[in-house]
Amino acid sequence: PPVSSRQAVAKADKDVVLTLTREKGPQLPWHLGQKIAGAPATDLEPTAFIQSDDPAIFAAAREAVGEASDVFTATSRLVHFVYSYIEDEYVPAYSNALEALHSKRGDCTEHSVLFVALARSLGIPARVAVGIAYWPPGKGFGWHAWAEVYANGGWYTVDPTWNQPIADVTHVKLASGGPAEQARIVMVLGQLKVVELKI
Length: 199
Prior knowledge:
The chain is an alpha+beta fold. It has helices spanning 55-65, 71-85, 97-103, 108-121, 179-189; strands at residues 7-12, 15-20, 87-88, 105-106, 126-135, 140-151, 154-158, 172-176.
């Protein structure tokens, strides 16, 4: 798993020990049209799956954030918009952001790509993250996709599928990026065993 400010990794014999820390929302002034500096340019650019340059994406994002004056408020509103807008439904194919916007349905992948496209359309760097997360209805960890937002010199984790402006600490990131990066972790998932240690 990658190392970040919320996810520390240590090896112990054949095991990997992760220490997950709950993040705080960034306090960073922001206004509509302002691009957040410091993130890789690729995390602001449109892609085949994240059509952040489409007028329909921008219009939805602008309406969702309203008069937000800081990054955390803007992204919290985007999280809530996507959570409320997309009807939860398993989609076997990897849909893009425009398909999710028009169909109004999808699973964690569609929630995440739509959120990332909305954020990028407003100049807020964002990317899709994948890994495992604890799913209470399933009483265990399973594959999941969410998003990360760049502000104040670092990334913080949001989950538009579960309406979490700051994702809970059960989100264990294994990769970030599009379908190709996500496919690399699929083979690992069946080999994972999660044991919770409380400190």
